[in-house]
Protein backbone atom coordinates (compact mmCIF):
# COMPACT_ATOMS: atom_id res chain seq x y z
CA UNK A 1 0.00 0.00 0.00
CA UNK A 2 1.22 3.48 -0.85
CA UNK A 3 1.62 5.64 2.27
CA UNK A 4 3.95 8.30 0.87
CA UNK A 5 1.76 11.25 -0.20
CA UNK A 6 3.97 12.19 -3.14
CA UNK A 7 3.99 8.66 -4.55
CA UNK A 8 0.27 8.22 -3.98
CA UNK A 9 -0.54 11.44 -5.82
CA UNK A 10 1.67 10.41 -8.76
CA UNK A 11 0.09 6.97 -8.95
CA UNK A 12 -3.48 8.27 -8.68
CA UNK A 13 -2.85 10.70 -11.52
CA UNK A 14 -1.27 7.94 -13.62
CA UNK A 15 -4.18 5.57 -12.94
CA UNK A 16 -6.68 8.23 -13.98
CA UNK A 17 -4.86 8.79 -17.28
CA UNK A 18 -4.27 5.09 -18.01
CA UNK A 19 -7.31 3.36 -16.54
CA UNK A 20 -7.47 0.94 -19.48
CA UNK A 21 -3.89 -0.34 -18.93
CA UNK A 22 -4.02 -2.84 -16.02
CA UNK A 23 -0.67 -4.56 -16.66
CA UNK A 24 1.14 -1.24 -16.78
CA UNK A 25 -0.50 0.04 -13.59
CA UNK A 26 0.27 -3.24 -11.82
CA UNK A 27 3.97 -2.93 -12.67
CA UNK A 28 4.13 0.70 -11.57
CA UNK A 29 2.30 0.05 -8.28
CA UNK A 30 4.75 -2.71 -7.34
CA UNK A 31 7.78 -0.48 -7.90
CA UNK A 32 6.34 2.58 -6.17
CA UNK A 33 5.36 0.57 -3.09
CA UNK A 34 8.87 -0.90 -2.92
CA UNK A 35 10.78 2.38 -3.22
CA UNK A 36 8.87 4.27 -0.52
CA UNK A 37 11.80 4.08 1.96
CA UNK A 38 14.11 5.65 -0.65
CA UNK A 39 11.69 8.42 -1.53
CA UNK A 40 11.12 9.20 2.15
CA UNK A 41 14.89 9.76 2.53
CA UNK A 42 15.36 11.72 -0.71
CA UNK A 43 13.07 14.78 -0.91
CA UNK A 44 14.99 15.91 -3.99
CA UNK A 45 13.17 13.26 -6.02
CA UNK A 46 9.94 15.21 -5.57
CA UNK A 47 11.68 18.53 -6.23
CA UNK A 48 12.99 17.27 -9.58
CA UNK A 49 9.80 15.40 -10.48
CA UNK A 50 11.71 12.14 -10.79
CA UNK A 51 8.75 9.83 -10.23
CA UNK A 52 6.42 11.74 -12.55
CA UNK A 53 9.06 11.57 -15.27
CA UNK A 54 9.96 7.95 -14.59
CA UNK A 55 6.42 6.59 -14.95
CA UNK A 56 5.92 8.31 -18.32
CA UNK A 57 7.72 6.88 -21.37
CA UNK A 58 10.00 9.32 -23.17
CA UNK A 59 8.45 8.29 -26.46
CA UNK A 60 5.75 5.94 -27.79
CA UNK A 61 5.69 4.91 -31.45
CA UNK A 62 2.59 3.11 -32.81
CA UNK A 63 2.30 2.20 -36.47
CA UNK A 64 0.49 -0.10 -38.88
CA UNK A 65 2.25 -3.11 -40.38
CA UNK A 66 0.72 -4.20 -43.70
CA UNK A 67 1.92 -7.48 -45.22
CA UNK A 68 0.79 -9.98 -47.85
CA UNK A 69 -0.07 -13.57 -46.88
CA UNK A 70 0.55 -16.65 -49.00
CA UNK A 71 -2.89 -16.32 -50.60
CA UNK A 72 -2.05 -12.82 -51.82
CA UNK A 73 -4.37 -11.12 -49.32
CA UNK A 74 -3.20 -7.98 -47.52
CA UNK A 75 -3.13 -8.32 -43.73
CA UNK A 76 -2.64 -5.43 -41.28
CA UNK A 77 -1.21 -5.62 -37.77
CA UNK A 78 -0.23 -2.96 -35.27
CA UNK A 79 3.39 -2.31 -34.31
CA UNK A 80 4.70 -0.71 -31.13
CA UNK A 81 7.96 0.66 -29.76
CA UNK A 82 7.98 2.26 -26.34
CA UNK A 83 11.25 4.10 -25.62
CA UNK A 84 10.88 4.32 -21.89
CA UNK A 85 13.99 5.74 -20.26
CA UNK A 86 17.45 6.60 -21.59
CA UNK A 87 19.04 8.03 -18.43
CA UNK A 88 21.79 5.40 -18.25
CA UNK A 89 22.10 4.31 -21.88
CA UNK A 90 20.32 3.73 -25.21
CA UNK A 91 16.86 2.19 -24.99
CA UNK A 92 17.19 -1.60 -24.81
CA UNK A 93 14.50 -4.26 -24.80
CA UNK A 94 12.91 -6.99 -26.83
CA UNK A 95 10.21 -7.19 -29.47
CA UNK A 96 7.20 -9.42 -28.67
CA UNK A 97 4.98 -10.92 -31.41
CA UNK A 98 1.80 -12.27 -29.82
CA UNK A 99 -1.97 -11.64 -30.18
CA UNK A 100 -2.08 -10.36 -26.58
CA UNK A 101 0.27 -7.46 -27.33
CA UNK A 102 -1.26 -4.04 -26.69
CA UNK A 103 -0.04 -0.71 -25.37
CA UNK A 104 -0.53 -1.69 -21.72
CA UNK A 105 1.61 -4.82 -22.12
CA UNK A 106 4.38 -3.00 -23.99
CA UNK A 107 4.43 -0.14 -21.46
CA UNK A 108 4.63 -2.53 -18.50
CA UNK A 109 7.46 -4.42 -20.18
CA UNK A 110 9.34 -1.21 -20.99
CA UNK A 111 8.91 0.11 -17.44
CA UNK A 112 10.20 -3.18 -15.97
CA UNK A 113 13.05 -3.24 -18.49
CA UNK A 114 14.33 0.11 -17.24
CA UNK A 115 15.04 -1.29 -13.77
CA UNK A 116 16.15 -4.70 -15.00
CA UNK A 117 18.76 -3.12 -17.25
CA UNK A 118 19.88 -0.91 -14.40
CA UNK A 119 20.47 -3.99 -12.23
CA UNK A 120 22.84 -5.51 -14.81
CA UNK A 121 25.20 -2.49 -14.28
CA UNK A 122 25.58 -2.31 -18.09
CA UNK A 123 24.91 1.07 -19.80
CA UNK A 124 21.43 0.32 -21.12
CA UNK A 125 18.19 2.26 -20.82
CA UNK A 126 14.73 0.71 -20.96
CA UNK A 127 12.53 0.07 -23.98
CA UNK A 128 10.18 -2.54 -25.42
CA UNK A 129 8.24 -3.19 -28.58
CA UNK A 130 6.26 -5.70 -30.53
CA UNK A 131 3.11 -6.44 -32.47
CA UNK A 132 -0.20 -8.31 -32.19
CA UNK A 133 1.04 -10.47 -35.09
CA UNK A 134 1.04 -14.20 -34.28
CA UNK A 135 3.89 -16.14 -35.95
CA UNK A 136 2.29 -19.48 -35.00
CA UNK A 137 0.84 -21.21 -38.02
CA UNK A 138 2.44 -18.76 -40.44
CA UNK A 139 4.77 -19.87 -43.23
CA UNK A 140 8.40 -18.82 -43.37
CA UNK A 141 7.55 -16.44 -46.20
CA UNK A 142 4.71 -14.82 -44.29
CA UNK A 143 6.91 -14.28 -41.21
CA UNK A 144 9.63 -12.78 -43.39
CA UNK A 145 7.26 -10.40 -45.17
CA UNK A 146 5.77 -9.28 -41.85
CA UNK A 147 9.22 -8.66 -40.31
CA UNK A 148 10.35 -6.72 -43.35
CA UNK A 149 7.24 -4.54 -43.29
CA UNK A 150 7.62 -3.87 -39.57
CA UNK A 151 11.28 -2.87 -39.95
CA UNK A 152 10.42 -0.57 -42.86
CA UNK A 153 8.88 1.74 -40.26
CA UNK A 154 10.84 0.78 -37.14
CA UNK A 155 14.28 1.45 -38.69
CA UNK A 156 13.75 5.24 -38.39
CA UNK A 157 13.49 5.03 -34.62
CA UNK A 158 16.37 2.69 -33.68
CA UNK A 159 20.17 2.61 -33.82
CA UNK A 160 23.09 1.27 -31.82
CA UNK A 161 23.35 4.55 -29.88
CA UNK A 162 19.60 5.20 -29.81
CA UNK A 163 17.48 2.06 -29.31
CA UNK A 164 18.54 -1.58 -29.58
CA UNK A 165 15.69 -4.12 -29.93
CA UNK A 166 16.05 -7.87 -29.35
CA UNK A 167 13.81 -10.95 -29.19
CA UNK A 168 11.02 -11.86 -26.79
CA UNK A 169 7.94 -14.09 -26.98
CA UNK A 170 7.35 -14.99 -30.64
CA UNK A 171 10.63 -13.42 -31.74
CA UNK A 172 13.60 -15.75 -32.01
CA UNK A 173 16.69 -15.95 -34.18
CA UNK A 174 14.59 -16.32 -37.35
CA UNK A 175 12.59 -13.15 -36.77
CA UNK A 176 15.63 -11.17 -35.61
CA UNK A 177 17.45 -12.27 -38.76
CA UNK A 178 14.64 -11.11 -41.03
CA UNK A 179 14.40 -7.75 -39.24
CA UNK A 180 18.15 -7.22 -39.32
CA UNK A 181 18.35 -8.07 -43.02
CA UNK A 182 15.73 -5.44 -43.80
CA UNK A 183 17.44 -2.85 -41.58
CA UNK A 184 20.73 -3.46 -43.39
CA UNK A 185 19.00 -3.24 -46.77
CA UNK A 186 17.26 0.07 -45.98
CA UNK A 187 20.21 1.80 -44.30
CA UNK A 188 22.89 0.40 -46.62
CA UNK A 189 25.06 -0.24 -43.56
CA UNK A 190 26.16 -3.13 -41.37
CA UNK A 191 25.46 -1.87 -37.85
CA UNK A 192 25.83 -5.02 -35.80
CA UNK A 193 24.92 -3.32 -32.54
CA UNK A 194 21.46 -2.20 -33.65
CA UNK A 195 19.76 -5.54 -32.90
CA UNK A 196 20.74 -8.32 -30.51
CA UNK A 197 19.93 -12.00 -30.58
CA UNK A 198 21.42 -12.18 -34.07
CA UNK A 199 22.75 -15.37 -35.67
CA UNK A 200 26.36 -16.28 -34.92
CA UNK A 201 27.40 -15.73 -38.53
CA UNK A 202 26.47 -12.05 -38.50
CA UNK A 203 27.39 -10.67 -35.10
CA UNK A 204 25.44 -12.72 -32.58
CA UNK A 205 26.87 -13.84 -29.27
CA UNK A 206 27.48 -17.35 -28.06
CA UNK A 207 25.34 -18.14 -24.98
CA UNK A 208 22.66 -15.59 -25.94
CA UNK A 209 20.12 -18.32 -26.64
CA UNK A 210 20.73 -19.90 -23.25
CA UNK A 211 21.19 -16.65 -21.32
CA UNK A 212 17.76 -15.97 -19.77
CA UNK A 213 17.16 -19.53 -18.62
CA UNK A 214 20.75 -20.04 -17.46
CA UNK A 215 20.78 -16.65 -15.75
CA UNK A 216 17.59 -17.49 -13.87
CA UNK A 217 19.21 -20.62 -12.47
CA UNK A 218 22.44 -18.81 -11.59
CA UNK A 219 20.36 -16.30 -9.60
CA UNK A 220 18.44 -19.09 -7.84
CA UNK A 221 21.64 -20.99 -7.04
CA UNK A 222 23.27 -17.91 -5.48
CA UNK A 223 20.11 -17.06 -3.53
CA UNK A 224 19.85 -20.61 -2.21
CA UNK A 225 23.51 -20.62 -1.22
CA UNK A 226 23.44 -17.27 0.56
CA UNK A 227 19.95 -17.26 2.08
CA UNK A 228 19.35 -20.94 2.82
CA UNK A 229 22.79 -22.61 2.67
CA UNK A 230 21.32 -24.91 0.01
CA UNK A 231 21.42 -25.66 -3.73
CA UNK A 232 19.46 -27.22 -6.62
CA UNK A 233 20.87 -30.64 -5.73
CA UNK A 234 18.08 -33.17 -5.22
CA UNK A 235 15.27 -30.62 -5.63
CA UNK A 236 12.09 -31.18 -7.62
CA UNK A 237 11.53 -28.29 -10.02
CA UNK A 238 8.31 -27.25 -11.74
CA UNK A 239 8.73 -25.08 -14.85
CA UNK A 240 5.99 -23.49 -16.95
CA UNK A 241 6.46 -22.72 -20.62
CA UNK A 242 8.44 -24.51 -23.31
CA UNK A 243 9.99 -21.58 -25.15
CA UNK A 244 13.51 -20.27 -24.98
CA UNK A 245 13.52 -19.31 -21.29
CA UNK A 246 11.86 -22.50 -20.06
CA UNK A 247 14.04 -24.73 -22.23
CA UNK A 248 17.34 -23.44 -20.93
CA UNK A 249 16.12 -23.06 -17.36
CA UNK A 250 15.29 -26.77 -17.56
CA UNK A 251 18.72 -27.55 -18.98
CA UNK A 252 20.68 -25.59 -16.36
CA UNK A 253 18.50 -26.66 -13.40
CA UNK A 254 19.14 -30.27 -14.40
CA UNK A 255 22.90 -29.65 -14.74
CA UNK A 256 22.89 -28.15 -11.23
CA UNK A 257 21.34 -31.30 -9.78
CA UNK A 258 17.60 -30.56 -9.86
CA UNK A 259 14.89 -32.75 -11.40
CA UNK A 260 12.53 -30.81 -13.66
CA UNK A 261 9.18 -32.62 -13.88
CA UNK A 262 6.95 -30.26 -15.91
CA UNK A 263 6.85 -28.05 -18.99
CA UNK A 264 3.84 -26.42 -20.62
CA UNK A 265 2.46 -24.38 -23.49
CA UNK A 266 -0.71 -22.34 -23.96
CA UNK A 267 -2.84 -25.51 -24.31
CA UNK A 268 -1.68 -27.58 -21.34
CA UNK A 269 1.24 -29.15 -19.48
CA UNK A 270 3.16 -32.42 -19.30
CA UNK A 271 4.28 -34.05 -16.07
CA UNK A 272 7.11 -36.57 -16.22
CA UNK A 273 7.95 -38.08 -12.81
CA UNK A 274 11.26 -39.36 -14.20
CA UNK A 275 12.37 -35.88 -15.18
CA UNK A 276 11.71 -34.01 -18.42
CA UNK A 277 13.53 -35.35 -21.48
CA UNK A 278 14.70 -31.99 -22.80
CA UNK A 279 15.97 -33.37 -26.11
CA UNK A 280 12.42 -34.51 -26.88
CA UNK A 281 10.97 -31.12 -25.96
CA UNK A 282 13.50 -29.33 -28.18
CA UNK A 283 12.59 -31.61 -31.09
CA UNK A 284 8.88 -30.86 -30.61
CA UNK A 285 9.13 -27.11 -30.06
CA UNK A 286 12.23 -26.00 -31.97
CA UNK A 287 12.27 -28.40 -34.93
CA UNK A 288 8.65 -29.43 -35.52
CA UNK A 289 7.16 -26.29 -33.91
CA UNK A 290 4.53 -28.57 -32.40
CA UNK A 291 2.53 -28.69 -29.17
CA UNK A 292 3.80 -29.96 -25.82
CA UNK A 293 1.14 -32.71 -25.70
CA UNK A 294 3.14 -34.59 -28.36
CA UNK A 295 5.67 -35.42 -25.60
CA UNK A 296 3.50 -38.21 -24.15
CA UNK A 297 3.47 -40.09 -27.46
CA UNK A 298 7.09 -41.12 -26.90
CA UNK A 299 7.11 -41.01 -23.08
CA UNK A 300 4.31 -43.30 -21.83
CA UNK A 301 5.24 -42.66 -18.19
CA UNK A 302 4.39 -38.97 -18.65
CA UNK A 303 0.91 -37.44 -18.50
CA UNK A 304 -0.57 -34.50 -20.37
CA UNK A 305 -3.24 -32.24 -18.82
CA UNK A 306 -5.27 -29.66 -20.69
CA UNK A 307 -5.09 -26.16 -19.21
CA UNK A 308 -1.70 -24.62 -18.53
CA UNK A 309 -2.56 -23.16 -15.09
CA UNK A 310 -2.79 -26.66 -13.59
CA UNK A 311 1.00 -26.97 -13.75
CA UNK A 312 1.15 -25.19 -10.37
CA UNK A 313 -0.73 -28.05 -8.68
CA UNK A 314 2.30 -30.33 -9.13
CA UNK A 315 4.25 -30.61 -5.82
CA UNK A 316 7.76 -29.15 -5.99
CA UNK A 317 10.61 -27.61 -4.03
CA UNK A 318 11.32 -24.92 -6.62
CA UNK A 319 8.87 -23.20 -9.01
CA UNK A 320 10.17 -21.34 -12.06
CA UNK A 321 7.37 -19.65 -14.06
CA UNK A 322 8.75 -19.06 -17.56
CA UNK A 323 5.64 -18.55 -19.70
CA UNK A 324 3.89 -15.17 -19.50
CA UNK A 325 2.56 -12.42 -17.24
CA UNK A 326 0.13 -13.12 -14.38
CA UNK A 327 0.20 -16.89 -14.80
CA UNK A 328 0.33 -17.44 -11.00
CA UNK A 329 -2.59 -15.98 -9.07
CA UNK A 330 -3.42 -16.12 -5.37
CA UNK A 331 -5.04 -19.57 -5.63
CA UNK A 332 -2.08 -21.07 -7.51
CA UNK A 333 0.35 -19.53 -5.03
CA UNK A 334 -1.53 -21.05 -2.08
CA UNK A 335 -1.47 -24.49 -3.73
CA UNK A 336 2.28 -24.22 -4.35
CA UNK A 337 2.92 -23.27 -0.72
CA UNK A 338 0.64 -26.05 0.59
CA UNK A 339 2.51 -28.56 -1.59
CA UNK A 340 5.87 -27.63 -0.09
CA UNK A 341 7.31 -25.08 -2.53
CA UNK A 342 10.16 -23.20 -0.82
CA UNK A 343 11.57 -21.19 -3.74
CA UNK A 344 9.71 -19.28 -6.46
CA UNK A 345 11.79 -17.27 -8.90
CA UNK A 346 10.41 -15.68 -12.05
CA UNK A 347 11.76 -16.43 -15.52
CA UNK A 348 8.88 -14.72 -17.34
CA UNK A 349 8.08 -11.02 -17.03
CA UNK A 350 5.73 -10.32 -14.08
CA UNK A 351 4.26 -13.87 -14.03
CA UNK A 352 2.78 -13.48 -10.53
CA UNK A 353 -0.16 -11.30 -9.52
CA UNK A 354 0.24 -8.98 -6.51
CA UNK A 355 -2.01 -11.29 -4.49
CA UNK A 356 0.17 -14.27 -5.39
CA UNK A 357 3.34 -12.42 -4.40
CA UNK A 358 1.78 -11.61 -1.02
CA UNK A 359 1.10 -15.31 -0.43
CA UNK A 360 4.73 -16.23 -1.11
CA UNK A 361 6.14 -13.45 1.06
CA UNK A 362 3.77 -14.23 3.95
CA UNK A 363 4.74 -17.91 3.79
CA UNK A 364 8.48 -17.16 3.86
CA UNK A 365 9.06 -18.54 0.37
CA UNK A 366 12.29 -17.34 -1.26
CA UNK A 367 10.71 -15.12 -3.91
CA UNK A 368 12.81 -13.70 -6.74
CA UNK A 369 11.17 -11.03 -8.95
CA UNK A 370 11.49 -11.16 -12.72
CA UNK A 371 13.42 -7.91 -13.12
CA UNK A 372 16.26 -9.54 -11.15
CA UNK A 373 15.89 -13.23 -12.02
CA UNK A 374 15.42 -12.99 -15.78
CA UNK A 375 17.98 -10.25 -16.44
CA UNK A 376 20.39 -12.79 -17.94
CA UNK A 377 18.98 -12.38 -21.43
CA UNK A 378 19.42 -8.63 -21.63
CA UNK A 379 22.80 -8.96 -19.90
CA UNK A 380 24.15 -11.10 -22.71
CA UNK A 381 22.44 -8.79 -25.21
CA UNK A 382 24.55 -6.04 -23.66
CA UNK A 383 27.61 -8.25 -24.01
CA UNK A 384 26.66 -8.85 -27.65
CA UNK A 385 26.61 -5.07 -28.18
CA UNK A 386 30.09 -4.86 -26.64
CA UNK A 387 31.42 -7.57 -28.95
CA UNK A 388 29.89 -5.81 -31.96
CA UNK A 389 31.54 -2.53 -30.96
CA UNK A 390 34.91 -4.22 -30.54
CA UNK A 391 34.54 -6.33 -33.71
CA UNK A 392 35.25 -9.38 -31.58
CA UNK A 393 33.56 -12.68 -30.76
CA UNK A 394 34.02 -14.15 -27.29
CA UNK A 395 33.93 -17.87 -26.53
CA UNK A 396 30.89 -19.50 -24.92
CA UNK A 397 32.90 -19.98 -21.73
CA UNK A 398 33.86 -16.28 -21.59
CA UNK A 399 30.27 -15.11 -22.03
CA UNK A 400 28.90 -17.68 -19.60
CA UNK A 401 31.44 -16.66 -16.96
CA UNK A 402 30.48 -13.00 -17.35
CA UNK A 403 26.78 -13.97 -17.15
CA UNK A 404 27.33 -15.87 -13.91
CA UNK A 405 29.14 -12.87 -12.44
CA UNK A 406 26.35 -10.48 -13.45
CA UNK A 407 23.59 -12.68 -11.99
CA UNK A 408 25.46 -13.13 -8.72
CA UNK A 409 25.96 -9.37 -8.51
CA UNK A 410 22.25 -8.77 -9.19
CA UNK A 411 21.33 -11.08 -6.31
CA UNK A 412 23.72 -9.37 -3.91
CA UNK A 413 22.66 -5.88 -5.01
CA UNK A 414 19.02 -6.85 -4.44
CA UNK A 415 19.71 -8.48 -1.08
CA UNK A 416 21.85 -5.60 0.18
CA UNK A 417 19.21 -3.07 -0.90
CA UNK A 418 16.54 -5.07 0.94
CA UNK A 419 18.61 -4.78 4.11
CA UNK A 420 19.06 -1.04 3.65
CA UNK A 421 15.32 -0.64 3.08
CA UNK A 422 14.58 -2.44 6.35
CA UNK A 423 13.10 -5.50 4.58
CA UNK A 424 15.95 -8.02 4.79
CA UNK A 425 15.47 -10.91 2.39
CA UNK A 426 12.59 -9.29 0.47
CA UNK A 427 14.23 -9.45 -2.95
CA UNK A 428 11.30 -7.71 -4.65
CA UNK A 429 11.82 -4.59 -2.55
CA UNK A 430 15.59 -4.92 -2.91
CA UNK A 431 15.58 -5.30 -6.70
CA UNK A 432 13.20 -2.39 -7.17
CA UNK A 433 15.23 -0.12 -4.88
CA UNK A 434 18.60 -1.06 -6.39
CA UNK A 435 17.34 -0.67 -9.97
CA UNK A 436 15.55 2.58 -9.25
CA UNK A 437 18.43 4.25 -7.41
CA UNK A 438 20.85 4.16 -10.35
CA UNK A 439 18.29 5.54 -12.80
CA UNK A 440 17.06 8.24 -10.40
CA UNK A 441 20.59 9.38 -9.60
CA UNK A 442 21.35 9.75 -13.32
CA UNK A 443 18.12 11.65 -13.94
CA UNK A 444 18.90 14.14 -11.18
CA UNK A 445 22.45 14.64 -12.51
CA UNK A 446 21.26 15.19 -16.09
CA UNK A 447 18.66 17.84 -15.21
CA UNK A 448 15.21 18.24 -16.69
CA UNK A 449 16.38 17.45 -20.20
CA UNK A 450 13.69 14.91 -21.06
Description:
There is one protein chain. With 450 residues, the protein is of the alpha/beta class. Among the domains are: 59-190, 3-Layer(aba) Sandwich (Rossmann fold), CATH 3.40.50.10860; 211-368, Rossmann fold (3-Layer(aba) Sandwich), CATH 3.40.50.720. Helix content is 48%, strand content 15%. It has helices at 5-17, 22-34, 36-41, 44-47, 50-54, 103-119, 140-154, 173-187, 211-228, 244-255, 278-287, 295-298, 330-338, 354-362, 370-373, 376-390, 396-420, 427-446; strands at 59-68, 74-85, 91-97, 125-131, 163-166, 236-239, 259-264, 268-271, 303-306, 318-320, 343-345, 366-368. The strands form two sheets. A seven-stranded mixed beta sheet has the order 9-8-7-6-10-11-12, sandwiched between helices. Strands 1-2-4-3-5 form a five-stranded mixed beta sheet. Helix 10 links the parallel strand 6 and strand 7 (259-264). Helix 2 (22-34) packs across helix 18 (427-446), helix 7 crosses helix 8 and helix 9 crosses helix 10 (244-255). The longest helix is centred in the C-terminal third of the chain and has 25 residues, at 396-420. The two termini are 29 Å apart. The mean pLDDT is 96.
The overall average pLDDT, rounded, is: 96
Tally of separate helices? 18
- What is the name of the CATH architecture of the domain at 211-368? 3-Layer(aba) Sandwich
The coarse silhouette is: globular
* Main sheet attributes: strand count, strand direction, barrel closure: 7 strands, mixed
Helix content: 40-55%
CA(first)-CA(last) distance = 29 Å
Beta-strand content estimate: 5-15%
- The CATH topology of the domain at 211-368 is Rossmann fold
Total strands: the figure is 12
Estimated structural class: alpha/beta
Q: What is the name of the CATH superfamily of the domain at 211-368?
A: NAD(P)-binding Rossmann-like Domain
Strand order of the largest sheet: 9-8-7-6-10-11-12
CATH class membership of the domain at 211-368: Alpha Beta
Instruction: Write the H/E string, N to C.
Output: HHHHHEEEHEHEHHEHEEHHEEHEHEHHHH
Low-confidence stretches: none
Radius of gyration: 21 Å
